[in-house]
Amino acid sequence: MRIKLKILYIHGAFSAFNRESLKVQNLEKEFEVVGFSYSMEQTFPYNRAVMTKFCVENGIDCVVGTSLGGLYATEVGRMAAIPSVLINPCLEPFMSLSTIVGTTSNYATGKEEAFTQELVNTFPKKVAATPRSLVFVGMNDSLIDHKRTIELSADSAGVVRDYEADHYWDDFEQNKLIRDHISKFRRKWQLLVERVNPSDAKRGG
Hints:
205 residues; alpha/beta
């Protein structure tokens, strides 16, 4: 029996992890999916640090994020040295988030969350996807400029375009591409270990 790879799923703004989400259910056909619910009332560095620590302590193989969660997935993957999958990611957060300052009801929990300009100021102005990222772009995204997402991703990350998907991409199911992406990253990492320390690689250390 094949052991399932463990994925951390990071939701978008003003939401929470929901195992009933179709995206999550589709991922669970192939992977073990672990959820993490972050708060919009915390700073970007705080949320990033907590999620990175969670990945390291729980043996996460890959982090998947959608929208604002895609931003976190980019940074958490980089800091935890694991591959990331970004679905319509928010890669210019300062500009995007400045338009939603105020109190908003969490779409999943109903809890009121206050998002201030001071919190916006803790986010980077721009983040480029990294070589460890695979970026899925819905070309009908009306919330995030898909052209800018591609510009900020194409130089280093793999980009997959879907000409029918919108921002929410509710029926997202790309398990084979995700598994191939994780396997490709692992092969590159093993080759790097072998070049740096051949004796450890031979021992499997």
